[in-house]
TrEMBL record:
The keyword Transmembrane helix does not apply. Residues 150-174 are annotated as: Disordered. Residues 155-168 have a biased composition (Basic and acidic residues). This is C-type cytochrome, methanol metabolism-related. SUPFAM superfamilies: Cytochrome c (SSF46626). Pfam families: Cytochrome_CBB3 (PF13442).
Amino acid sequence: MPVRMKQVCVAIILGLLAGTVHSHADDKETAAAVTDEDGKYFDKDGTPTFNIKEDGTVDWYTYSGYRRFNSECHVCHGADGAGSTFAPALVNSLKTMSYADFLSTVAEGRKNLSAGKESVMPAFGENKNVYCYLDDIYVYLRARAVGDLPRGRPAKKEDKPEAAREQEASCMGG
């Protein structure tokens, strides 16, 4: 099992052990990057996060998340995670959704039957184009949710770190 998938499984298990609903509030302060491991940023709790420089340059993983979101998720969740008639605005959902809940929902999917309206989030746990880039998608949406990243393609990005190349090759089987 690739390292990334093991991390996803651990996060899902932890989320299930803690219960299905988590109280979580995200904002600019909570999302602030405090550590950096080979170009990948983490907040004070060790949750993946973004780093956007004053000139607008985004870290590689945020840029990658933008690309992956727009190749796999935007069809239902709308451009830039702003929502659609098919699925909710993830820029709103991520303000209250924990990292573990995000991983669990994307990997396992979700079915919601309320008020006579059925909504289904398909499981993407077997889709390498999603699960190999879950952190990237998460940090992109997190940056959008807390208001640090405007709509549209980021104009400037950091170079792709070697660690990202290695993880991608390992996960994608290349």
